[in-house]
Amino acid sequence: xxxxxxxxxxxxxxxxxxxxxxxxxxxxxxxxxxxxxxxxxxxxxxxxxxxxxxxxxxxxxxxxxxxxxxxxxxxxxxxxxxxxxxxxxxxxxxxxxxxxxxxxxxxxxxxxxxxxxxxxxxxxxxxxxxxxxxxxxxxxxxxxxxxxxxxxxxxxxxxxxxxxxxxxxxxxxxxxxxxxxxxxxxxxxxxxxxxxxxxxxxxxxxxxxxxxxxxxxxxxxxxxxxxxxxxxxxxxxxxxxxxxx
Length: 245
Description:
single chain
């Protein structure tokens, strides 16, 4: 489906900021802090674990659009009924350590099943970082043909930078930046650059073609809600205003 006017406006200036509470995070206290910080900090939308109770809880805390993420499409219809504005397959990073694998065939099958369940809801799909970049581009094109409205990158969460400071932050973001550059040139739908980003590297994501950035650990691992808010604001302010295309 074509993105609604609500979502077109989110991505129009290519500086959308998605704050991620975590695909495996079901604690309402943690999610509440993230949602409130995202709202105060000026984020574009919030990404939650796919749970209808969390969606209803978050809906009471924010006016921002809500996206729910899962690897189980069967969880999604109840979340949409509870008020989710977008559904997402992935991010897959937390599941690799559990022995899960996500090849192109599995991601395509998940996409097909989600579209069968929810033919009219905006759908984002993560492209696995475990695939070579050329295979990521090929899969991305196939996912768009199957009904994906937005694509998202990921990068190895286990990647250990070889250098400290700013250079290390750039190293950490490199897989997601490379994937964003590749996918943004392979498809016409918005690409959200996610995994390993920081205030240093979100402008780079924008420069290589991202329509938005997904920020998780840089915000959700902070314990103080006001520190979270400040981190969100710093990300928002790091993105350069661009002309609407």
